[in-house]
Amino acid sequence: MALTDINWRESNFYRYYKEKAELSEEVFEQLVRYFSFREITHNHYLLRAGELSQYAFFVESGLLQSFSLDEKGGEHILQFAPENWIISDRASQYFNKPTDFYIKAIEPSVIVFIQPEFMEKASHLSHAFACFMENSLQRNIYIQQQRINSLLAMSAKERYLLFMDMYPSLLQRVPQWMIASYLGITPESLSRVRRELLSERRTNRGKE
């Protein structure tokens, strides 16, 4: 893991908060001590189970995953984070307790390590940012509720369609076994779903 001298004014990180949270350049200049850009390699761990989560991670470029391990060492993927996504364990930070999860790079990536003070001070300096953070929290709760509902009540096909809607850019970037793990199904079941959807598309084209 190496620090990189990316100009924050030209970064996706700055553009993201400027557009989404109306965070001005003047406010950003007061926050530069609370974030850093770092290059990480494929399979590098940003967080391991048992550690305290000290940062939120913004994906400037590349791809991360969050997952847990069962007693047999099997991965259960909770989330993917491609470009312009933020990933962390908020519960570990908020309650100051060791995390149960891992965060790892699937691709060589440039990641912004964001200290908690960034969010706190930005919210104090900008009302628009504070509103953005509140909306983000509510949106994350909604997404987690959807995720739980999909695992409990949706068919494998419905879960896959939801995945395609949420992560359209990842279908060619992520191995099939990882997608199956995220969906909570076997790779064989995922292959059947993909064949079924392909057959449906061909049938629909034939009716046009």
TrEMBL record:
- Residues of the Cyclic nucleotide-binding domain: 38-121
CDD domains according to UniProt: CAP_ED (cd00038)
This protein's name: Crp/Fnr family transcriptional regulator
Top-level division of the source organism's lineage: Bacteria
